[in-house]
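Re: your question about AKP13 protein

S., sorry for the slow reply, the queue was backed up all week. Below is exactly what I fed in.
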Amino acid sequence: GDSVITVQLTEEDKVEDDVVFYLVFTGSTVQHCTSTRKINPGSLETISPGHDCCETVKVALCASREGHPVLVVAEETFQFVQDEAYDAAQFLATCAGNQQALNFTRFLDRSRPPAADVDFLDEKVALAFRHLKLPAEWNVLGADQSLAENIPRETLMHFAVRLGLLRLTWFLLQQPGGRGALSIHNNEGATPVSLALERGYQKLHQLLTEEGAREPDSWSTLSHTVHSGAYRVKHHRGLDVYLLTAEA
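Result:
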């Protein structure tokens, strides 16, 4: 999700300005409807919705005009593919609480990836996490909630903070066990909060310690989402388009 989609209209589809175009994506369990914006008389632009699984879906381009029935202008297929970010999010979600796996992820820190790579990783993995089907009982600290907070251990929060992943840290903070992870020491005696301070990640430290700290900005998160039961409406301010997602 969150990629820009361009729609090229044929000559016969170029119509008056009062016609509004929508894209409707129909998957196996959810359906998305996105508004579009006109770039020029022959081109439309919108944002691809974040989908709940990797599959090929049907896409319909619909035209709407006040006082007239909605017309299906064209139909096509669209494939949501599994990429490295999705794999990484799946791995991390599955390994919450797995000390062997979490210690293994520390090699990323030793390789010290460039800031641009870190930002890309943060953006993509956080986005993938948002669309994972996490079990209802999923917890940042793993499945074993009987562990006392004073037992030293590595957590997903340590991983996210160590690499300076602002958006992933924000996502984890909103999940069960996220706030609890902030006070847990690892085997070196570091908490996620002390790690952020030690590494000079000022924005990250502020995110972890300031009450009411806001979500970090990025082009994909410059949006406002409203949830209501089986429906979700998202407004992308950059392109000024709306996405409605509903259970099919």
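Strands lie at 4-8, 20-26, 30-35, 37-40, 43-47, 56-64, 71-79, 223-228, 231-236, 241-247. The longest strand covers residues 56-64.

Happy to talk it through on Thursday.
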